[in-house]
Write a structure and sequence with these properties.
The protein is mainly β and about 250 residues long. The protein has helices at about 65-70, 145-150, 155, 200-210; strands spanning about 1-5, 15-20, 20-30, 35-40, 45-50, 55-60, 80-85, 90, 95-100, 105, 110-115, 130-140, 140, 160-170, 180-185, 185-195, 220, 230, 235-240, 245-254. Strands 1, 2, 3, 4, 5, 6, 7, 8, 11, 12, 14 and 17 form a twelve-stranded mixed sheet that branches. Strands 9-20-19-15-16 form a five-stranded mixed sheet, with no helix packed on it.
């Protein structure tokens, strides 16, 4: 099942599922309780939004060996985690806005985990029971501010710096290899596989839930493969994860 969140008829924001003939609308939320409706709208009649609005986005750094190498960093012996605020989240086709404070903003293609239920001190083997599904993310980063600040909150936290979408795939298997790419203006920048992650989804969710309680709808970004690079006003960024879909966002100046 592919779950979407849409702005449908009469500016009604609701959840739905992708069907062959369009988007089946639902009442309620898949995180709590929802009910199938009889309404199916053509995809052209809805606007896709970020598939979830989390209370927090927990991101993981240096989780691909080649990316750690291109950042001149050693691989960590445990996950490195940081937070992106929920105000950084945008959906498909919403613009990434370049802040005036940065002259070097980068794309980072990432697999995102969407939590289904409260998770605290979850064992790695039980993690799948707490996950709703998976979506595509772009961990947009002001690289110059990341270097100058010495920590990552400002560099990762600007509004629009966490595109998510287009859908939450509930059948995606993170233990299988899936291609993950980032394309800017038709040029492939990142071309990796989710199988190259240093720490898998089970390890990551277990580790993070030992630090903080994860709530329904919270999102975990699992790290990015090598090939990160600059984006500029006028660019067109596509993040593609095999089996989930393509997340597309334009880039504009603030």
């Amino acid at each position: 099942m592919k779950i979407v969140r849409v702005d449908a008829e009469a500016d009604d924001i609701t959840y739905g599922t992708v069907e062959p003939d369009g988007i089946r609308l639902y009442h309620g939320s898949p995180l709590f309780q929802w009910e199938r409706s009889e309404t199916v709208l053509p995809i052209t009649q809805v606007k896709l939004l970020a598939p979830v609005i989390p209370t927090k986005v927990v991101a993981v750094g240096k989780n691909y060996a080649e990316h750690a190498a291109e950042m001149a960093s050693d691989l960590p012996d445990r996950p490195i985690i940081f937070l992106k605020p929920p105000t950084s989240v945008i959906g498909p086709m919403s613009p990434i806005r370049l802040p005036e404070a940065s002259l070097e903003v980068h794309h980072e293609a990432e697999l995102a985990v969407v939590m289904a239920k409260v998770a605290r001190n979850v064992a790695a083997e039980d993690v799948s029971n707490h996950i709703l599904g998976y979506t595509v993310a772009n961990d947009v980063t002001a690289r110059d501010l990341q270097r100058s600040d010495g920590q990552w909150t400002r560099a990762k936290g600007f509004d629009t710096f966490c595109p998510l979408g287009p859908a939450i795939d509930t059948e995606f298997d993170p233990t299988e290899p899936h291609a993950i790419t980032a394309t800017v203006n038709g040029e492939i920048r990142q071309d990796g596989s989710t199988s190259d992650m240093v720490f898998g989804v089970g390890e990551l969710v277990s580790f993070i839930s030992s630090v903080m309680t994860l709530l329904p709808g919270d999102v975990i970004l699992t790290g990015t493969p090598a090939g990160v690079g600059p984006i500029r006003s006028g660019d067109h960024v596509e993040i593609d994860i095999e089996g989930i879909g393509v997340l597309v966002n334009p880039v504009v100046a603030s």
